[in-house]
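Pasting as-is:
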Amino acid sequence: MCDILPNTLPDALPDTEFYTALMNHSSDGLCLAERDSGLIRMVSRPLCDLLNRASESLQGKTFSDIFSYSWSGEADTRQVQYLATVQPLSLEISINPFCWQGVHYGVVSVRDITDQLHSREALVETGLQRNFALNDILDGLWEINLHTNEVYISAEFKRIMGFPAEKAHFGLGEWQQQIHLDDCVAVMDAMSAHLRGEIPRFDTEYRLQTFPGDYVWVRDQGRVYERDEQGQPLRMVGMVQDISATKAQEVLLRRQASYDYLTDLLNRRAGYMHFRKQLSYAQRYGRQFSISLIDLDHFKAINDSYGHQVGDQVLKHLVTTVSAQLRQSDTLMRWGGEEFLLLLPNTDSEGARQLVEQLLQRVNNVPMPLPEGEVSYSFSAGIAGFPRHAEQMDMLIKLADDALYAAKSAGRNQVCVSDALSDVAQGELSV
């Protein structure tokens, strides 16, 4: 135990029992330090008890010798680690400067905050563990230390990513490298906008590469929960949800809305939109463009003779046979029932006729095999072209349908080209 020693004080300082009692009965440890020399001139009994040192080992020492940092002479408060005791202490040191008779001093208040910090850390850890435990059931939890760029992850996050169990955190740069190249810019832009305070939360969907190397779709939501005095973000917390199944279902639904379930061709709705784009391109750049409506001959008789299951197989056989002969730029779509529409960009009506006749010959030469034999079938086709026959989509379809009807009327198993002329074609002929 140590007491204030009045006879050790310089003559310039007041020597009264009041100040002695005041310092010794403070709950905090107190001492008096000279600004210029840094020497400790006065210590209280609570400070000696806190540091487990006699007054003689403190008085006459410099401030930096005891607390391992130098006092600047200004008012200051900071937390330091004191390692000279058996158990390290966390101390909060506050210094208030004053001047007495031309000499500058600082009243140093020392408080033990070790238990307080441990309690705070335990509370934070308990909260994180509670959140981690909850989100192990629901989503993957993450926390980013924006000062060190370390990302801490929950067990569910590790499961989503396929990380080994011992991996508890990784670098922010490593996380960025896992984002799909097509999504990375948008994700980082959203993150930066939130860190700057432009949007209230980070919320985006993107593809994330797992530890084994494949990709999962995730919804990632988070927000900054701690900033410094200047408003700069320090920590951010969020959750990742695996939405791969939802995304796969969306893709399936979009495909079902656009593709025929039997032939896997574009259906009429999606095909109509594709047709419009192709014709618009031809109109804009002055390109030839032809279409052909193809209809199976006597398809009802095939269904009646062999059953609808074989009829479906005939439709699929036709698609396979025709598709194998088409160019990459050509598009075959199911227009309805046993009717198909073929789009032939950069092709005039004569070129279209030659191609469709080749397709018809191929179909005639390759009947569909059955376990008990084979099914021979044919089709009829009508052709119309832009700009010779028509300039608008609906008129092209009508003229191709008229030409198809002519092919049916002429005995089927043949190709007919529209004999109509558009205004542009008639103008060219008159010239």
